[in-house]
Structure formats: structure tokens, C-alpha cells
Amino acid sequence: MVSVGETIYVIGGRLCHKEMTHVSDVLADWVDVEVEILTTVMKYNARTEQWSACASLGTPRSDFACARGFRPAEAYDPVLDEWSPLPDMNTMRYKSVGVTWQGKIHVVSGFAERLNSDRTFPFITERSSAEVFDPRTGTWELMVRMWQLDVPPNLIVAVDGKLFSSGDCLKAWKGHIEAYDAELNMWNEVENSCHRELSQPAKRLFLTVAPIGTNLYFLRGYRFSGEPPPIVSMACKFDTSATTRDAWTSFEPVVEAAEKELCSHCCVVKLL
Fold first, then answer.
1. pTM surpassing 0.90?
2. 237, 216 in Cβ contact below 8 A?
């Protein structure tokens, strides 16, 4: 999901339905079945509140790719409503994180493999690297060690010329926020960014981040114990420009009437 002007584009994704599956003698859980990776693209005009269909992708995509990942990239022209192929990336990737920074598109980390290798497991070097696309030259460049962990990030956002992250795809919230130091090519903990999650028993269903101004807005969903188990959405923000310990602000939680699931990370639309 991405925003361009006053329009939100929902690109590709997975189509499936959920089925209750027996896990153990005392546990059952919902699992995705009949999964289909889509080529469809829908757009939503935030001003007119209307949905419409766009030209389809050339290749089905979900989480930047599917299966064991691949290299092909595509670009969309919203004026012409058409997709055109871009040069292939250097490595096959999936579960990557994309962010536009310093005028270039960064596809960071992900489970990656070399196309010409007979090895069946991903290379750590590629997992910790990034593919950087320069629209001016139309070329990809491999940037090594941009992500320091073997596990891909959950999300990376750009605020005021800086990159921020708060977790990886296995642990979406580490308990603090990290900022990228481009000169040292490393991630450092942001001062006063430590923030505890709920102390009472609850299962986090999702966590995503939306950058607005100098603030990072964290949107979280929890399932609490009970019958039926209540679903609660919570929001808080962190001011990246703050120099004191009161950089965090929490908002009133909302009890949801039905189950919610994160289908994509947030995007921001500004209506003028």
C-alpha cells in the first residue's frame, strides 16, 4: 500500500480465507488456506472516498515477491495507468522492506539468494544488504551491511531525512526505536525511545508505523483474554525531534467490534 497525492494504491497481495485448525489437544488457531498471490491493483481517492481499479501488475506480488523471492521490478505511471519493467535487482528477495530516501528507492534486507548459486539456503551477506535504485540512472546498486541483523526488518520509515526502525519481522517491537547512521553504516538506539508494552496478558495482533511531520505514529492491535476475547486498538506517537524524556504520547484505546488483521503497513495522505 502506498500513497501518491490524494490517492492510496493497494498493490497485489494475498487472497485467502481463514480456517480453524487443530494445533494441539488444548489449542486451535486460525490459518490461511487457499492462498492466491494477486496482480490486481486498486486505488482509493481519499477526497471523493471512491475505489476504482487500475492496470494489473505484470507479475503477482506479495511482500515484494512470493515463494523464494525474485529479482524483477516494475514501475507504475499513475497518469498513464500502466506498468513498465525496471532492470532486475542483483539478488532474489522476499520479506524485504522498501523506503524512499535521499531520492532513491531502498529495498532493505529480506530473505535473499544469489540467482547463480546452487546453494539452497540464503546468504547472510545478502540478507543484511540493500538494493538501491536510482531513478535518474535507472540502475540498481548493492549496498552491503545496511541492515545488521540476519532477520529482515518489520518496517523502515523516513522522517526529516533520517531512517527509523523499531523491530524485525519476528519481533515487531524491540522496546525502543533505532535510527540509521549513514556515515557509519549502522543502526543506533534513539535516546528516550524506550517504551514498554502492556503488562497485562495480551496477544499483539499487529504493529505498524506512520510518519507524520517529525512524529512516528505507532498503531497496535491486541487480543485480550476473555469470552469472547476483546480486540483493542491502541495508538501512540514518538516525537523524533524531542530532547527530553516526554517524547512519547499515548492516545485513548479503542475496543473493536470485530477481529482486525493488518493487511499492509500504513501510508499517509495529506489533503490540502
1. no
2. yes
